[in-house]
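Anyone? Bumping this.
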Amino acid sequence: MFDKVTLIGIGLIGSSLSHVMRREGLAKEISVSSRSQETLDRAKELNLGDHYHLDAAEAVKDADLVIVCTPVGACEAVAKTIAPALKKGAIVTDVGSVKASVIKQMKPHLPDTVHFVPGHPIAGTEYSGPDSGFASLFEGRWCVLTPEEGTDDAAVSSLTKFWETCGSNVETMEANHHDLVLAITSHLPHFIAYNIVGTADDLATDIKSEVIKFSASGFRDFTRLAASDPTMWRDVALHNKDAILETLGRFSEDLSDLQRAIRRDDGDKLFDMFTRTRGIRRSVIEMGQDVAAPNFGRDGEGDEPAS
Amino acid sequence: MFDKVTLIGIGLIGSSLSHVMRREGLAKEISVSSRSQETLDRAKELNLGDHYHLDAAEAVKDADLVIVCTPVGACEAVAKTIAPALKKGAIVTDVGSVKASVIKQMKPHLPDTVHFVPGHPIAGTEYSGPDSGFASLFEGRWCVLTPEEGTDDAAVSSLTKFWETCGSNVETMEANHHDLVLAITSHLPHFIAYNIVGTADDLATDIKSEVIKFSASGFRDFTRLAASDPTMWRDVALHNKDAILETLGRFSEDLSDLQRAIRRDDGDKLFDMFTRTRGIRRSVIEMGQDVAAPNFGRDGEGDEPAS
């Protein structure tokens, strides 16, 4: 599909893209760039690319498709570095969880001769780094593209086809809208998870060890999200600040309301609050966004209920 | 092990106990009681007992072990009902997620001729009702007993052996201590999950459908806990009020601190907050409380990372 694809950054998303591109024959040649020699060496051991470069400008030479797979805070520096070396007609995209900021960081530096189509594959795990990737990561998941008006249709189609071949369903939307939706579905849940695990981490040592010991009662679910890459999430917090603060504000108001209901022994209100949420779980499963098996089908705990 | 065991309440825990007791031959006879005729009929269809009673007093006659498997708010009424019918020397226990309140509700009504040993198997799924039980629910999970001082040693040993045969590791602790630990590991996570899903439920219809559509980005994890039984969780909120309000208070303070760091673009602080939580996830996995597979090993997303 492409003669040469360049991956700038080779963490979970970059390495997964490498695996799926190899499997699907999406690129004749894969060029890998990382700022860290250690990461680059590991990528080479894992055979994730055909060429390896510390210098991103070197890596993008002659590339038809450049995919920036770094934390979103690095996008401006990457754009500045690669701009002079980009091939005419190349497609430049990214995989960041925030879109308006990425556009603001990258667009002013990119030449008019390339097609800039920002993207976000909504897929991931709690692991990071070049070892964490796998070819099926994007299967059945959404990939959102946020091209600005006037972007070349052929470039958008080509990138759409690329992600579809990776197994994703592609949807196009406006960058700010993406950022608002993701603030609720992704950013808030991660920050809440980091926060609750942080609250537990602050406890006295003896209580903390008991919290870990008895974590199967609910707490363990949060520890997974809270094990995600700190650099990535720091950058998301800084680069989608307004939508996140707005969303955190709503959450906090609702939490005060819940706290008040508990303090006032308002059982009816609590029952209502705990009932309406079941419908959302049902919809999530119906939309194929989660499994119906109890406890996410964790090993040995996943017996399907009888009805 | 017991001639006759009575299950009062036949939801997830009661029905799972029935399955494991049958498998392990723990009871010659199982008597099932429920306040609802419909539930009792379903329990009969599922062959969960040998006798079925709407009246809990009828159900406990001649029982050697009585296990109260109702929401914690029903314990006082159950104790009053069964007290006159209990056999001399019987063991009475429960499975509630709150212990001090259960003791306060039940103990004054129970005769001195029975052995009251409150218990809490730390196991569950997001499903409820007589259909949701399965024999392996308690395997490898903790069961906490909170007998008061002076409780008959033989009764505690006997109940310990019972839970061990169900596959659990048994630990004894003081009721108030149990309630504090569980407020953090179980109650807070559930209320936070209910709250975040509630916040999403309040959104305008179009945004809400997108939140569900893109829920694989983090939100879906919370919908599982927020699909748990509303009656059970209403009762937990009302019956472990002080520990929960204290825990929610800590969480809220920490959340304000996080919000402040985002508003002030304090990247270093955010990075620290998002780093220290990884160690807790590691410990949870090392302690056998969760699986290491990415995304909890959900279907088709569970490829183990290369390292």
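Late reply, but here is one note on the structure posted above: Chain B has two domains: 2-173, 177-275.
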